[in-house]
Amino acid sequence: MNRDWRNQFPSRRNMFLVTGGILFTGLTVRLAELQLFRQAEFETKARETRIRLEPAPPHRGTIYDRTGRVLAGSKRNFYVTLRPELAGDRTQIIDVIDRLSRIVPLSENRRRSVTQEATTGPRFRDILVADDLTWEEFAQVNVMSPELSGVSAEVGELRSYPLQAAFYHTIGYVQKANEADITRMTEIELKAVNESIESPAGKARAAAVRRLYRHPAMRVGKSGIEAYGEVELKGEPGKIRMLQNAGGRVIDRLPSDDLAGKPGAEIVLSIDAELQNYAIQRFGAEAGSVVMIDVDSGDVVCMMSTPAPDPNAFVSGIGSTLFKSLQSDERNPLYHKAYDGVYPPGSTFKTIVAAAALESGAMSPEETVNCSGKAWYYNRFYNCWRPQGHGSVNLHAGLQKSCDCYFYRAAEKTGIEAIADVAKRFGLGHRYELGLTGGKVGSVPNDAWKRKVIGEQWYAGDTISAAIGQGYVTATPFQLAVMCARIAGGEKTPDPHLIVSGMKVPDNTITPMGQFKPGVIEAVRSGMFGVTSEPGGTAYSYLQGGSVDPKGELPAPYTNAHMAGKSGTAQVRVILASERNSRGEAIKNDKLPWRLRDHALFIAYAPADKPRYAVSIVIEHGVSGSGLAAPMARDLLAHALKYDTGARKPFVPQQREVAGSEAKPT
User: Fold this and answer.
1) Among 189-203, 246-260, 361-375, 642-656, whose mean pLDDT is lowest?
2) Rounded Cα gap, residues 81 and 154, in angstroms
3) Ranges of H-type helices in 214-319
4) Are 79 and 156 in contact (CB under 8 A)?
5) Which residues contact 392 (CB under 8 A, 6 or more apart)?
6) Which of 31, 188, 230, 370 could form a disulfide with 221 if both were Cys (CB 3.0 to 4.6 A apart)?
7) What is the mean pLDDT of residues 318-329?
8) What integer is the mean pLDDT of 112-125?
């Protein structure tokens, strides 16, 4: 049957018109939605595709001494980076590094390290080639940049230690983070926000931490306060907008002031830098440590370990030759002697034995012991340091003259358990949390301690050795300073602290001194005063010649021995009977190699009648506590009293501005 196509055309035309109208209307609606209603959304996505946010290291917090002097700050840093993907293949990278080294001096080890990292690591990451460039080097790299593919000259901040070696051990230093550092900081950051590495938020945060610490301008604390306070000091990182092309290659840096990070905490220490520098000068070429505590406040006003390297040498990577020389130096410049050093306390421990004998009732202050130069205990002789003996001595004379035989007897009657209990009450056997890495416990031995550590029971002969601070008894110089401060200040002596503000450092496990029986502390103080200020005292004759202050600046009233103290000599080896002559005298220290000589110790406080400062001094292999350490203690205490170190209120950081090359308080 034939159909009239003319009759069918209008219906088809209408169908196409309707369909076209529907499609056109839908397209119009869609275009309106995209251009009018979702314009902002797509502009954001476009920017995100075009702009990449990179982490920006924040300004690291400044560390000050109690007077506001900068101990660790930041200076302007010109540095050079290399991005392998822009430099080319291995041959081209080596060529770029070779040409760059003609402008910026690079050691052979550094060139080898950069080459390896650039040719084996991720090609899209910036690699730090060199930092702390001079202005001339920085300008020349910029001029030559068109010929140095992948090389970029940048400006940032670099950690700076103005007082150099004076605070190496306490402040520590920063350095480029290695993989172990990055892993550690990632774990710390995730723990702080209670996130798991497996969660999406945890993965994102971990990635951000890794990017931050891999930034060429970022450093991480490696030791001391820098490491302990890393989270507080580093601040909150910011962001930098980087313009990239379709291939993801960065082509420009955009304004990012609105994404600036938060500066790190400003930390103030209780230490007086001027006093610390004076202690270093006073020590001269000797190796050892000084710790001084304000008895009234618990402020640690001096914590010095010498010799020490310059921490600035570590910030950009210390050379292998220099580091090996530091490691091989027999004076151990890398070792924090004040906090990590563990020594036999020697005769300074006799103050503990004296207090324990009186507190336990084992002896009275008037009870005497006859010293003939040696005493027989448990099938052997124990020698007194004075071969001809001291005659009849009571507690006061025993401390004043440091009679070994008196304390052999006092320890035997008192027993090690009572001695150990008193030692802990005076601050020994505890690692003090100060806000820096390291720190040792030392040992306050008794039967339980020896069974646990040595695997043997306590023998009576062990008590005789402990009586004079030898055998198993050990202490750090910091603990000895706490001990002396508690003797000086009594039960109300505040616990020691190093951080004044900027970081909280709780230490809730310190054994309290508690109250002693009437007269106990007074008797110990009297004996210590006899050591320094009464004829016959072990340090008396060494303190009568006036100050040996290297600057000669202390006036006469401050050079008198108005202090109380106790000397100590700690053996570093066992003296055999065959090494003594017929009079019982051992080979003199000056005939021995330096490393075999006795350590010299001295603890003291001043003024004797109203204690303000307590100090402990340990001079490694210094032979004589009275002869070498006592005059140092006198001069350091005199210096602190003269300038009233502890009376000056600690510095309070104000709003800081970064001007020039150094961050300074306004």
Assistant:
1) 246-260
2) 8
3) 224-228, 230-234, 273-283, 312-315
4) yes
5) 368, 369, 370, 371
6) 230
7) 88
8) 81
Look at the chain and count its residues. Answer: 666
Residues with Cβ < 8 Å from 186, sequence gap 6 or more? 197, 206, 209, 210
Strand pairing class (220-221; 267-269): unpaired
The structure tokens 């035989």 sit at 405
Closest alpha carbon to 301 in 267, 338, 337, 272: 272
Q: How confident is the model at residue 435 (pLDDT cuts 50, 70, 90)?
A: very high
| Structure-token pair, residue 544 | 């009568």
* Strand 51-56 to 151-160 pairing: unpaired
Q: Which two tokens stand for residue 366?
A: 């008037």
Each residue's pLDDT tens digit, 279-292: 999 999 999 999 99
Indicate the pLDDT class of residue 657, thresholds 50, 70 and 90: very low
Question: Is the backbone of residue 389 left (phi > 0), alpha (psi -120 to 50) or beta?
Answer: left
How far is the C-alpha of 594 from the C-alpha of 42, rounded, in Å? 76
Distance separating alpha carbons of residues 120 and 393, to the nearest angstrom: 75
Q: Where are the alpha helices (DSSP H) in 122-272?
A: 135-144, 168-171, 179-192, 200-213, 224-228, 230-234
List the one residue out of 599, 623, 343, 619 whose CA is nearest residue 471.
Answer: 343
Q: What is the per-residue pLDDT across 48-90, written as a single tens digit (0 to 9) for each?
A: 557 777 778 889 999 999 999 999 999 888 888 888 877 778 8
Q: What is the pLDDT of residue 664?
A: 33
Mean pLDDT of 313-333: 89
> What phi-psi label fits residue 546: left (phi over 0), alpha (psi between -120 and 50 degrees) or beta?
left
* 299: helix, strand or coil: strand
DSSP element (H, E) containing 417: helix 416-425
Nearest to 253 by CA among 269, 234, 239: 239
Q: Which of 662, 646, 339 is nearest to 479 (CA)?
A: 339
Residue 663 has pLDDT above 60, yes or no: no
Whole-Å CA distances, 280 to 41, 240, 291, 617: 64, 44, 12, 12
Tens digits of per-residue pLDDT, 505-519?
Answer: 989 899 999 999 999
For 346-421, list the strands marked E by DSSP: 369-371, 374-377, 380-383, 391-393
The confidence score (pLDDT) of residue 461 equals 93
φ and ψ at 627, to 5 degrees? Answer: -75, -35
End-to-end CA distance of the chain: 104
Burial of residue 250 (CB within 10 Å: 0-12, 13-18, 19+) is middle
Q: What pLDDT does 196 receive?
A: 86
**What residues contact residue 527 under an 8 Å CB cut-off, 6+ apart?**
351, 354, 395, 396, 398, 399, 400, 566
Residues 355-380, mean pLDDT to the nearest whole number: 94
pLDDT at 273 over 50: yes
